[in-house]
Design brief:
With 364 residues, this protein is an alpha+beta fold. The protein contains nine helices and 13 strands. The structure holds aspartic acid.
């Protein structure tokens, strides 16, 4: 009965997506995944897809040096995950290895280089999920854990819980021997400067009676310069198991205590061998309200929709109809993968079983 109810709800969801009103100019459907693929036939199907955040990323604003740095960072992460997969390791380990590289790279909004909250501190969220068991671990409101994805994994494997927050999560991390750092470790000069700019702009707006980010209403989409660079990975290993992980500093100037979609299982992160693995990036509130990652997997599992179509219908129809900006990466057990986004760019990369790397930033 539950199953039938679920199916009906999903059919309604798919129908609503198909009948969604015309997209707003903010999120362009033209950005529909320029990439998706499949590795069938005799080829090995395993591989990995990663993202380093979605937003307004235009060629005009990008310098060659900056583009090269992003590409190099993404490739390092892909190669770290690939090394695990190639030696027959688990997708879970590959996802963690790739995310560790991006957490340590200050270009990305995760770990070192995270954006700052309204108090001027880095406040981190992360989650990881094993598609073969549905085991999941997530952490939110983290201030001292060098690699939040490691703490999420410890919650998954060393505690009976799925989600832990703040001081309690970090106390547990210390007990598990997870590396802690001074909160200042995460803060870089460019992030501090961006925060100062926003604080100045918000006080000008406040003086004119307008609301700043921390007090904006529910329909607010976070401007891109304030949330570039969340990181995520999905992988299929040689044993045919899927995994997903996401790590982020969230959105700049978020209220102290705000939790985004990344650590919410089913919103920003989800993996299930029966359907797919998904990691998301964008204004998290929309991804939470629409349970984006699980909705995509549910369309695949219950609606028998091909992965690319399921992902596209949620990202480029359902989210766009609500002005929810962002994108996702996804893989299924057949090795199909996709990376739709409704912004002008998303840092993203794929590596196949032969080690071929494919990195894209802009929508074309
Ligand atoms: N989804 C993240 C959050 O809302 C931010 C991002 O992906 O840019 O916390």
């Amino acid at each position: 009965m539950l199953h039938r109810t679920h199916l009906t709800a999903l059919a309604a969801l798919a129908l609503a997506a198909a009948c969604a009103p015309a997209p707003s100019p903010r999120a362009t459907p033209a950005a529909i995944a320029a990439g998706s693929g499949s590795l069938g036939g005799q080829q090995a199907r395993w591989g990995m897809v990663i993202h380093g955040g979605a937003g307004t990323i235009s060629r005009e604003q990008m310098t060659p040096a900056r583009e090269a740095a992003y590409r190099a960072g993404l490739e390092r992460a892909l190669r770290a995950g690939y090394a695990v997969l190639q030696r027959g390791g688990r997708s879970l380990d590959a996802v963690q290895a790739a995310i560790n590289v991006m957490e340590d790279d200050s270009l990305f909004n995760a770990g070192k280089g995270a954006v700052l909250n309204a108090e001027g501190n880095a406040e981190l969220d992360a989650a990881i999920m094993d598609g073969s068991t549905l085991a999941a671990g997530s952490v939110a409101g983290i201030h001292r854990t060098r690699n939040p994805i490691d703490l999420a994994r410890a919650v998954m494997e060393k505690s009976p819980h799925v989600m832990m927050v703040g001081d309690g999560a970090e106390l547990f991390g210390r007990q598990q021997g997870i590396q802690m750092v001074d909160p200042g470790y995460f803060i870089t000069a460019p992030r501090r400067a961006s925060w100062e700019r926003q604080r100045a702009a918000d006080s000008v707006r406040a003086a004119s009676g307008a609301r700043g980010m921390a007090d904006a209403g529910p329909a607010y989409s976070v401007p891109d310069e304030r949330k570039f660079g969340t990181v995520g990975a999905v992988a299929l290993d040689q044993a045919g198991n899927l995994a997903a992980g996401t790590s982020t500093g969230g959105t700049q100037m978020k209220r102290y205590g705000r939790v985004g979609d990344a650590p919410i299982i089913g919103a920003g992160t989800y993996a299930n061998n029966r359907s797919c693995a998904v990691s998301a990036t964008g204004t998290g509130e929309y991804f939470i309200r629409n349970t984006v990652a699980h909705s995509i997997c549910a369309l695949v599992e219950y609606g028998h929709m091909p992965l690319a179509q399921a992902a596209d219908s949620i990202v480029n129809r359902q989210l766009v109809a609500q002005n929810g900006d962002g994108g996702i990466i996804a893989m299924d057990r057949q090795g199909n993968w996709t990376w739709p986004f409704n912004t002008s760019g998303m840092y993203r990369g794929h590596i196949d079983a032969a080690g071929n790397v494919h990195i894209q930033i802009f929508k074309d």
